[in-house]
Amino acid sequence: MKKINHYLAFCAVFALLIAGCSKDDPGTSEDPISSDTAVLQLGPVLNDMQTRQEQEIPDCSEEEPAFAQVVLEYGDGPTLVETVIPIGEDDQGLFTLYSPDLEIPIPSGETSVSVTLLEFVVWTDDGTGNPGDVIWVAPIEGSEFADFVDQPVGENFIFDLRAGSKNYVNVDVICYDDRNVNLYGYQFFTITPVPLIEFCFFGNYCTPEGRHYVASYSISVWYSEDGQKGELIYDGLENNVVGEGNDAYADPLCFFLPDRLDIDDTEEEYYIEIRLLPDTPGYNGAGELVGEGPISVDEIKAFFGPEGTLDYYHFQYGCEDGVPPPFGRPEAMRYKACLKYIDSADETAGYAYISVEGTVAIAVVQAFGLKPGVMHPQHIHTNASCDNPGGVEVPLDYNEGGFPVPEIGDLGISFMNYAEAIPGFFLQNVEDRTVVVHGKDVNGEYSPSTPVLCGELEEY
To answer: Name one GO biological process term (predicted).
Structure first.
């Protein structure tokens, strides 16, 4: 596959927005207020110029405030909240926008809850919709700058929120310059990042006569759990060709997905649908769903290459190679096996996919850490357990003969990427089979028949 440069983007803001008002608040959200919650909104109030001059508060940046970094706690636990919220402005001043992070639950049987504001820092926009530079800070009580404001943040900045109310709270801030941040009472200013991973697609369409064209298509993405769709993330991202006929071209379609640090990469997954669009050159049909299915973050990272490159997922509708796993046509049966080492001394891992439509299967095997430069026989085996795979049912080789050979990448790690269409595939109960990859050094000699990886196939 063609490689394209990319950079892993780290989003400094993943949780956005805040709201509230005990008086008529600026920018009031239209969201209804539950009787067992209270909505909070915070308004940064900058000391006036005269006060700054008298107290020699640092000079102010002329940049516009865009985000508030907030740390607070509430309840008897207490429950800690750390979030970043965009800042809005109207004729009454600045205010944080609505955020579900600041929809504070009221304990059962109570009419209010106590909240303590621990930190409050104002950032600019870096031009891409993310926080850029710190410009205003609410000093922490006990710091050298605490006397510059009427109410520093900290353990004594306490207020009560009533059930079913919107609460607006002013926060005194002062300007920030490059002197030591501990003068404000902070060790450092940080926004906990939520990493984003990039995933790219490219598609082709083949006419019944076998002529290839670049495809126009759309991608929709949902959060997923156990292979089922959850909350929608992207609704119909389109990638349209430019030009006509054989002169048509298109760049890969790339987008970003969260890579949460608190969920294992093998468990965090997304559900993706691929639709061919009617303006595809050579295609005379309506928009059509040509591929769908779940994919884990771990599987997405298998597309990452060395030195900031990645391989895109390449599908071909109507072509011999088809729509390769992990996605497949709606009518296709899809199976996946997580390949694990048989000997714990072998640092190997990978995935195997089998997509079956009619009597044609598309098999994909991706594996890391295998011995490079030599063929690795691989097969679908009879049984459902890696403890006893049984005999060979279907070889996963190339139609022209031979098994795949891993190559060493730029980072010094071997990678094997096998993909092949298997005609005349009549194997039943694929979900009750295993995939075994063979080939490893034994007593100093390469043994092509020795199993090295195994995975139990499951329908998905």
So the answer is: superoxide metabolic process
